[in-house]
Specification:
Low-confidence stretches: none
Number of helices: 9
Distance between the termini: 31 Å
CATH superfamily: Vaccinia Virus protein VP39
Largest sheet: 7 strands, mixed
Number of domains: 1
Order of helices and strands: HHHEHEHEHEHEHHEE
Radius of gyration: 16 Å
Shape: globular
Strand content: 15-25%
Bound molecules: S-adenosylmethionine
CATH architecture: 3-Layer(aba) Sandwich
Helix content: 40-55%
């Protein structure tokens, strides 16, 4: 894994490459309201809730329409930080939080979390739901997620099997032909495990669906 990103996502057009899928915000919100959240998202919320969220601050990186942190706030978390590279997703998440009377408990930050990490308040719970697959540099992203030493880190991402790699290559090719900046990345589960293990985290849950993995890490010092 590269330890330093060769490219910084600092400006509007760079961030558009990460947050391009804000274009799906309306559809994502409609699916959530219809009770059709992506199964790995539901599983992530459930496994985090089971660990206990009362009074916790949640850092929801790439929160999209906000399903994870809004659900955790409704389950007893105290506050949340939504960091997203997409203005469209941030606006949608804020509108939904306002509708549920929760927006006052959420701080919204636009940008690449790797660039913003030093400015963020510490959080006890960090989630990355379908986010590491949008970002080319795994290690800096995990470093940003764990900078404040959260008790729990929950991640969902595509399984690193050959057919998912083949699918993502084809997807990226189609996007390139369409001149869309959108790209997906399949990071190795072994690299996630190695990095988290090397930084004091142990696996508390591993599940998911055929194509998507759901993992939850607990900080070793926070073991029950
Ligand atoms: C595929 S969407 C997932 C949204 C939501 N978590 C869900 O599962 O429905 C990926 C999101 O991550 C955001 N994102 C990707 N890399 C990011 C980064 N380095 N910092 C902040 N947001 C990022 C994108 O802007 C986008 O909103």
């Amino acid at each position: 894994m590269a330890s330093h990103p060769p490219h910084r996502f600092c400006c509007e057009e760079d961030l558009a490459r990460l947050g391009y899928d804000g274009l799906n915000a309306k559809a994502d919100l409609a699916r959530w309201r219809e009770g059709k959240l992506h199964a790995p998202t539901r599983e992530l919320i459930e496994v985090v809730r089971r660990e206990g969220v009362d009074g916790a601050r949640v850092l929801d990186i790439g929160a999209g329409v906000g399903a994870v942190h809004i659900s955790l706030l409704e389950a007893g978390a105290l506050a949340a930080i939504d960091v997203d590279a997409s203005r469209a997703y941030l606006a949608t998440a804020r509108t939904e939080a306002e509708r549920r009377g929760l927006a006052g408990r959420v701080e919204y930050r636009y940008g690449d979390v790797v660039e913003l990490t030093d400015e963020l308040q510490s959080a006890e719970i960090v989630t990355l739901d379908s986010v590491i697959c949008c970002y080319p540099y795994l290690e800096p992203l995990l470093a940003a997620a764990t900078r404040s030493g959260p008790r729990l880190v929950g991640i969902t991402y595509p399984r690193d099997v050959w057919w998912m790699r083949a699918y993502m290559r084809l997807y990226n090719l189609v996007q390139a032909v369409r001149r869309s900046p959108a790209r997906y990345f399949i990071h190795r589960h072994a690299d996630v495990e190695r990095w988290m293990g090397g930084n004091g985290y142990t696996s508390a849950h591993e599940g998911g669906i055929r194509v998507w993995r759901v993992v939850l890490y607990r900080r070793a010092a926070a073991e029950r």
